[in-house]
């Protein structure tokens, strides 16, 4: 109770330390807090941090920003959890030096104060280096001498003495902030990834034929050429027969209908089995290997529901709900029914075995070589299960990443991210106007969510054929793609239908007509167009420019046209500066003045900047704050790297 | 782990539950939180609360406000601590009813669902009242009957059934929010008080004579006439001799100088002793009694420092700092020196005895009959000591209130309030312009501080003769007074000098020339003027109008003049509505249009409102949104009660 320092208002801090923040290897953790004490003394503090597998705490000082607000930070170097804490104390030696300085400047005689300082110098002799000890001994002698007052006060004020006090702080009665604070560190792909989704059963080159993993292997060069580094497959498991869905989500399937891959489980097995027509486990392992040779990781769908034919239904009937008439409860959101799948009852008394089994599925595929899971509808399964399962997987396989497919209310999406999901789908799909996009980017960038919620922007998915795309032309498809890939460091697209601008909707719905979810498609994988050219170029530029490997670095650049959006992205060091300019009007050439965010760039008006368009190769020199831009629907964007002239 | 509900973002919550919020008896505690769960089921929740001395928890339901945000509350009835917590669960019976309703509206056949409902009805039979049980038995029979389908579905959807489900909730796998949340409840005076400060040694009617408690007794009728309910005295203890301050803070006192009362302690005793010239303990008790007869409470100064002659210095040398030359360390903030007082060293190894002794001072005076302490410079003493001491006092004397005299940085002032101070001095003293006042009121009203920081507005104190008052005329003094008393439910003034507009400053400083802090004054206590008339009237109006008994109910009413400020204050029920209008220009008559805050008043434009000026008795009827007001410096305000015509 001799402590006098108060530490509070720590940020980042998620729900009082209930949840961890997230970083990738090499990123800084910047911390602010309020630190204060009674009186007028000099305070000092530090951040102590250590990786969970290290024994010793490291520390890094915090400094006063303004009125009682202190800041500091550290950099995370390894994957896994780091613990960190904030420690503060009334610094008696620094206070002594501060006070004696004020008195000396006020021409007060400080003989007694010099002697008073000995109590801080003498104990240091045991701690410091030899040269420092030599210096301290000299100062101690001066302080005690009656004849060297002038030299004594010079040394009392010396930077060298201050530096020794700061290097060997006397942390008397230190206060440690009492909440447990943690940061989880992922590999870089958690923050920077380019996803390509396609249905492996549509991978065959032969019309109407069920694709195989072998067919997929042959597509890897194409995916690599486009520049993606994650390929995500809808579920690859056996598909149920009972209540199988027909084309266009028909409740009755015809004999040759293949069903929705999300109706997992059949006589051939469940979540750890492979749909026989796709191939064998060996084929799958081979595909993972071929993909890796192209620097592509396979992401797998983890969809926790069962077709009525799933082996679990017989083996673990206690995991499902049963109705009074003896039938099993299928999935529903009344009045809607999803008869081809059964939900798992997380309230089952057998929850412990259930959790273990569900975890074992993840562990099985991790062992096979999968490191990325796209989790289907995680918001309809117990959040506490996710917290536990993700943590368990990462303990053994720290490279594993989880993308939460939850298109739902903001708090629900944030809650999942706090529980441990590495990435999350977002509302980008429905943010269409310039104003909506700017607001959304500022909202996600400034919210505390930027500490744990990593967006993944998708212009479309097999489930979502958004209204804006349903009548879109190639210009619109290009700009929606371009913005997803440059606003967000993580982005993805649902494959061939986007490149080939296939967008016929189910009448009045945001779904695809004759959706690939319910049938096999055959695509001309050799086809190339302006869209594929663009994808290839943008993915290449993303790899070369760290400014595009972060999401929360969005800075709006005002443009005097409601269809032209512009934004600056900067890497952490601010040496890589990318300015994107997009004409969101897919039908008209538009021109307007754009205001350069000069203060973010740290240059005055008049300073010449080389605007290097990385798409076209064109170069311009801009010297003014306001500059005219003009874009046609044929190539509706600039992607400028701002370079020194 | 079968729980599925997440509760987070609870407000109010101070530093993750580290500190309590504050209320006075009868006030509501309104709570919001985010509550959500996986899936689409119906959630329900409640706030559980109990007074620390009660055994059983009471509960009050929370309801959904919007997207995952829930709200509820309870009212505190007794002084002391209440604990409260938030509990939430997936409500299976309500979900069943919600789902069956959707299916019925979709014309689905729900026989099986009716039978499914029995699991929720049957267990209720044991809990409900007899009439409810009779009803439930009827419904159970209907659900099982094959011939009464129509009646069965009617009852399945019935409000009565829903009501029973809500009255007897089935809190399966409930989640309880894991932070400890508390509210401390004070008596009303914590929130609503009118302070009058004067120096008892200046209470004599004889020029130059040292006043006594007996003299003070004679002044109580005057204080009561003015309408104050707290009289605060600077310290009443013996005053030190060594380094005693002379007039105008001179470092050397003349033989007849009385010194600063804040230099506590002398040969006659310390903090539990009374300055002999003021009287005896019996005199003091008598004064407390006389004051009480006038509905006035005496507030005492608790100033934790010692003159060099304080008995503690000899008895407990370990509580002070000693210099290498054997002298004691006086108070200083280098280069400034305060030689007449010694600070207490809260870092002493003997801190336990120190804390006990300091607490015993409070307990001593509480026992004498004091219930209010004005604490001198609490921000230069250990904050953890305050937290402990205030709590200890309140355990035994729950009526006790503490006013923190800390005019310092915002975080420091807030930290003290969190530690338990009942009221706090504020920046009102330096908020001079209309814009500054509106901003300050909105800042303190909207900040989380409104849960624990209770402002006390003072236009002046013996320490502060603010620049704005130094050249002020009576109009300015009236408006500064008026705003303190109507903006804040707690306010105070430093006595006669304010009424008599005595404001000669120390050159260039915000201090009084020939300050009463260092000498005895003699005041003509019989003198009355427009200021005393005003004080009398305003204090009366404050007592009669609950809208003026709250501070965080400030609503700015726009006025088209930069010198006229107007604000609405409403009581909790919004039946008492006060509109204050102040001309802050002390030299000129000013008129302008004022916009009535109609939405806060809940009336449409055109609705006639009777504007009853409680100062002058004048009445006007306003029907428009914008109304013209005009005020002269002679009477620079309206204090309207808004009444029904």
Task: Give a nutshell description of this structure.
With 645 residues, chain A is of the alpha/beta class. Chain A folds into four domains: 91 residues, Immunoglobulins (Immunoglobulin-like), CATH 2.60.40.10; 77 residues, Up-down Bundle (Methane Monooxygenase Hydroxylase, Chain G, domain 1), CATH 1.20.58; 344 residues, TIM Barrel (Alpha-Beta Barrel), CATH 3.20.20; 90 residues, Golgi alpha-mannosidase II (Immunoglobulin-like), CATH 2.60.40.
CATH superfamily of the largest domain in chain A, by name, is: Glycosidases
Parts with pLDDT < 50 across at least 5 consecutive residues of chain A: none
Q: Indicate the CATH architecture of the largest domain in chain A.
A: Alpha-Beta Barrel
N- to C-terminal distance of chain A: 61 Å
Count of individual beta strands of chain A: 29
How many domain modules of chain A?
A: 4
Helix content of chain A: 25-40%
| Mean pLDDT across all amino acids of chain A | 97
Evaluate the radius of gyration of chain A: 30 Å
Percentage of residues in strands of chain A: 15-25%
Helix and strand composition category of chain A: alpha/beta
What oligomeric arrangement do these chains adopt?
A: homodimer
CATH fold title of the largest domain in chain A: TIM Barrel
How would you sum up the global shape of chain A?
globular
* CATH class assignment of the largest domain in chain A: Alpha Beta
Largest sheet of chain A: 9 strands, mixed
Number of helices of chain A: 17
Biggest interface:
A-B, 66 and 66 residues
């Amino acid at each position: 109770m001799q402590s006098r320092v108060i530490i509070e208002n720590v940020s980042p801090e998620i729900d009082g330390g209930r949840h961890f923040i997230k970083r990738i290897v090499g990123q800084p953790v910047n911390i602010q807090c309020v630190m204060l004490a009674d009186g007028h003394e000099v305070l000092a503090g530090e951040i102590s941090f250590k990786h969970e597998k290290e024994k010793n705490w490291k520390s890094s000082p915090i400094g006063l920003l303004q009125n009682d607000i202190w800041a500091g930070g550290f950099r995370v170097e390894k994957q896994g959890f780091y613990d960190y804490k904030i420690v503060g104390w009334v610094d008696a030696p620094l206070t002594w030096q501060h006070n004696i300085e004020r008195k000396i400047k006020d021409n007060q005689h400080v003989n007694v104060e010099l002697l008073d300082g000995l109590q801080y110098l003498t104990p240091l002799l045991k701690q410091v280096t030899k040269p420092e000890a030599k210096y301290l001994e000299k100062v101690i002698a001066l302080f005690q001498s009656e004849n060297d007052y002038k030299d004594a006060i010079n040394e009392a004020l010396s930077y060298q003495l201050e530096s020794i006090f700061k290097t060997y702080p006397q942390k008397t009665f230190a206060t440690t902030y009492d909440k447990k604070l943690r940061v989880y560190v992922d590999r870089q792909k958690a923050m920077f990834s380019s996803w390509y989704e396609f249905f492996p059963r549509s991978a065959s080159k032969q019309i109407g034929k069920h694709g195989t993993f072998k067919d997929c292997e042959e597509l890897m060069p194409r995916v690599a050429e486009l520049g993606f580094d994650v390929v995500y497959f809808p579920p690859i498991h056996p598909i149920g027969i009972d209540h199988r869905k027909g084309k266009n989500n028909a409740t009755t399937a015809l004999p040759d209908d293949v069903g929705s891959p999300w109706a997992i489980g059949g006589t051939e097995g469940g979540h750890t089995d492979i749909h026989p027509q796709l191939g064998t486990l060996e084929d799958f392992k081979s595909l993972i290997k071929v993909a890796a040779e192209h620097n592509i990781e396979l992401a797998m769908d983890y969809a926790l529901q069962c077709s009525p034919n799933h082996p679990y239904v017989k083996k673990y009937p206690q995991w499902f709900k049963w109705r009074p008439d003896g039938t099993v409860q299928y999935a529903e959101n009344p009045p809607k029914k999803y008869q081809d799948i059964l939900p798992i009852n997380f309230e089952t008394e057998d929850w412990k075995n259930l959790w273990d089994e569900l975890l074992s599925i993840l562990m099985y595929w991790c062992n096979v070589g999968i490191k990325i899971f796209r989790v289907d509808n995680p918001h309809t399964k117990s959040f506490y299960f996710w917290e536990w399962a993700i943590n368990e997987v990462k303990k053994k396989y720290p490279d594993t990443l989880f993308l939460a497919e939850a298109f739902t209310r903001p708090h629900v999406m944030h809650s999942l991210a706090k529980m441990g999901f590495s990435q999350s789908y977002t509302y980008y799909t429905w943010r269409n106007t310039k104003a909506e996009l700017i607001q959304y980017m500022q909202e996600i960038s400034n919210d505390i969510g930027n500490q744990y919620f990593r967006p993944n922007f998708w212009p479309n998915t097999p489930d979502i054929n958004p209204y804006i795309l349903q009548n879109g032309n190639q210009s619109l498809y290009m700009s929606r793609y371009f913005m997803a890939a440059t606003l967000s460091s993580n982005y993805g697209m649902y494959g061939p239908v986007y490149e080939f601008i296939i967008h016929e909707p189910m009448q009045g719905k945001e779904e695809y007509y004759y959706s690939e979810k319910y049938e096999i498609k055959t695509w001309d994988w050799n086809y190339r167009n302006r869209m594929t050219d663009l994808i290839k170029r943008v993915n290449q530029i993303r790899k070369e420019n760290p400014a595009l490997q972060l999401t929360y670095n969005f800075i709006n650049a005002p443009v005097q046209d409601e269809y032209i959006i512009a934004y600056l992205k900067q890497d952490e060091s601010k040496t890589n500066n990318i300015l994107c300019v997009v004409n969101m009007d897919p039908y008209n050439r538009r021109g307007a003045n754009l205001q350069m965010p000069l203060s973010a760039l740290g240059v005055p008006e008049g300073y010449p900047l080389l605007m290097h368009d990385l798409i076209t190769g064109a170069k311009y020199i801009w010297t003014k704050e306001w500059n005219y831009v003009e874009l046609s629907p044929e190539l509706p964007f600039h992607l400028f790297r701002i370079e020194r002239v």
